[in-house]
Design brief:
131 residues, mainly beta, 7-stranded mixed β-sheet
């Protein structure tokens, strides 16, 4: 898989709450089937998004990767994770981290105690073996 960071004009879909400053990034999900070559499959949700809000496509806008990273720099550690990835951002414990909400396990922590299982080799994403 090619790194989203090496794709020209790669975009994510972000809640308008994130873009107008009325919400904070809380949850991200990578769809299995992006619709265009620029689409990374990522959806970024705010802490004040509701199920009703999320059902309305007009409440989300495409933004380039650089803009998403300006909203939350720790996205650089998780945006190349595989399709189907579902993560929550947690800042409550004093350590910034991305967590799997289903298993309640950390995927990346800013203190370096947990790192993602991906690396980049010439623009390609390589998943490290968990064995």
């Amino acid at each position: 898989m090619q790194s989203v960071f090496s794709q020209p004009e790669a975009v994510v879909l972000a809640s308008k709450h994130l873009l107008d400053g009325t919400g904070n990034l809380r949850w991200i999900y990578r769809e299995l089937a992006p619709t265009t070559s620029q689409d990374t499959g990522w959806l970024l949700f705010a802490d004040n998004d509701t199920a009703k809000w999320n059902q309305e496509p007009d409440n989300f806008l495409p933004i380039v990767i650089e803009t998403a990273i300006a909203l939350e720099s720790s996205l650089t550690h998780v945006l190349d994770l595989p399709y189907g990835t579902d993560l929550m951002l947690d800042k409550r414990m004093g350590t910034l981290g991305w967590w799997d909400p289903k298993t309640h396990t950390p995927v990346w922590l800013s203190d370096g105690s947990v790192k993602t299982n991906i690396s980049y080799n010439n623009g390609e994403v390589v998943e490290k073996s968990s064995k």
